[in-house]
Amino acid sequence: MRVTTPTPDVPRARLAILASGTGSTAAAIMDAAGTTIDATVALVISNNSGSGALEHARTRGVPTLHLSGVTHPDPDALDTAMVEALADARIELVVLAGYMKKLGPRTLDAFAGLVVNTHPALLPAYGGQGMYGDRVHAAVLADGATQTGASVHVVTAEYDEGPVLAQAVVPVEPGDDVAALRARVQAAEKSLLLDWLATHFR
Ligand SMILES: Nc1nc2c(c(=O)[nH]1)N[C@@H](CN(C=O)c1ccc(C(=O)N[C@@H](CCC(=O)O)C(=O)O)cc1)CN2
Ligand SMILES: NCC(=O)N[C@@H]1O[C@H](COP(=O)([O-])[O-])[C@@H](O)[C@H]1O
């Protein structure tokens, strides 16, 4: 008779996700965590108390937190609260997945090199202030670009300027509108981000 020794419950790396809106990317990460990604989503934070991201977390039993200018009108206090929340949850990597606010210097200092963001374009193209969500796809279409894509990058002080970690190219098809391009980019983006996370925690 073959005796198998059960694998001891080795604690997994602890991820936090920051998201502002629908949260489809956050949901994809949560659904992959513990299977294709050897990590645990320990906390989901949103600046929008009514966000889909927080609802996705609640339905999956993942702890949530609303941190915003409403909870902390002073930006420095908000930055400090973010550091404390991430530290208290023993977070080892922070993923921005549709987070629409600038992370503050205290958070970036406390988690230097440990915050990554997914952006729906081929950075440095279509990045920076004002470049978020459908505004990115509209700008790509307005320029008549024949391709766009998704980028995963390290988060630094200014929007979208950190080192790029991974990219995926996505074609712009004739007749594309924002919705069609968003859908194609977001599908590629989820694959890119989940693959990067799976490799990062291997
Ligand atoms: N310190 C950093 N914080 C954030 C970064 C970053 O690289 N460094 N990335 C963004 C995510 N992002 C693109 O990937 C991004 C999000 C939002 C904006 C933007 O212009 N926001 C508006 C406010 C929008 C709103 O209130 O809904 C603004 O600041 O005027 C640009 C890029 C996340 N944080
Ligand atoms: N510049 C930041 C930015 O535009 N982020 C984008 O917001 C979307 C969030 O979708 P989701 O809420 O369904 O995950 C994602 O496509 C992400 O790349």
From TrEMBL:
Keywords: Purine biosynthesis, Transferase. It catalyses: N(1)-(5-phospho-beta-D-ribosyl)glycinamide + (6R)-10-formyltetrahydrofolate = N(2)-formyl-N(1)-(5-phospho-beta-D-ribosyl)glycinamide + (6S)-5,6,7,8-tetrahydrofolate + H(+). Its EC number is 2.1.2.2. Gene3D superfamilies: Formyl transferase, N-terminal domain. GO terms for biological process: 'de novo' IMP biosynthetic process. Belongs to the GART family. GO terms for molecular function: phosphoribosylglycinamide formyltransferase activity. One of its GO terms (cellular component) is cytosol. InterPro entries: Formyl_transf_N, Formyl_transf_N_sf, GART, GART_AS. Pathway: Purine metabolism; IMP biosynthesis via de novo pathway; N(2)-formyl-N(1)-(5-phospho-D-ribosyl)glycinamide from N(1)-(5-phospho-D-ribosyl)glycinamide (10-formyl THF route): step 1/1. It comes from Cellulomonas persica. This is Phosphoribosylglycinamide formyltransferase. NCBIfam families: PurN. Residues 14-195 form the Formyl transferase N-terminal domain.
